[in-house]
Known about the structure:
By secondary structure, the protein is α/β, with parallel strands linked by helices. 37% of the residues lie in helices and 15% in strands.
Amino acid sequence: MRHLMTPLDLSVEELDKLMDTAEDIKEQPDKYAHACDGRVLATLFYEPSTRTRLSFEAAMLHLGGKTLGFADAGSSSAAKGESVADTIRVASCFADIAAMRHFKEGAPMVAAQFAQIPVINAGDGGHQHPTQTLTDLMTMRSVRGSLSDMKIGMCGDLKFGRTVHSLIRALLRYNNVSFVFISPDELRLPDYMIEELDSHEGVEYTEVTKLEDALPELDVLYMTRVQKERFFNEEDYVRLKDFYILDSRKMEHAREDMIVLHPLPRVNEIAVEIDNDPRAKYFDQVKNGMYIRMALILMLLEIQVK
Ligand code: NCD
């Protein structure tokens, strides 16, 4: 039985296969409409979510399966003090596969150890978010044709932004990918991610503060929200929340073929005027998210569709 905790749990070949399947599902949804008949997905969400939970649920429903679960810790037995280990044992009795989001780093990993069903990490604290990465990779590959040979700028909260951490991990395995990390000093990448980058020989990266300086050289700009819920005090959050705002004026510095990604939810970091710019791909990401999660559910349940 396999779980998905970090993008590194999948080989590059498996990632390719998942993206191919997701593209096939997108083109021929009817072929997959009953692939999960009789199967159940549990969504165990201890932290707020719109896209991830709904897209997991939509994924299972479009495969013909059913879903159950909870959308916040307060409405689950966690409020009574139940451990993650016990909750997943219970979910294993009712479901065939589970997606778990938790505010504590490592919680889905603990769940995986006690589960009788595959567990997918749907975001653990400020740590990892592998299925958002699948969504990001699929979007980049579909627009650019490949995941090699690019310069990606990651901007915003690189300290607490788990989507950034997972995406870096995944991209480090492709050829000739270089990174520009754009953040205020307080929100730079955590040391463990810097160590991971340094352990990959030949990988180029720079850390800068000004978005305008980085923009002209980028193939991809990955914007992120300042992660309010992970700050220790409100004052720091208020000071940093609007540090970067991508607007039309700034986009003039970017290339015509640069793409803008964002895992969403957006707060102020991308002005709505950018939404109609053909370079804005963040709503495509949302759509791709459902298809790639469909492909992932099939893979982890070992279901082949001919
Ligand atoms: C992200 C997350 O939960 O980490 N959202 C998502 O799943 N699309 C990004 C965020 O909350 O800022």
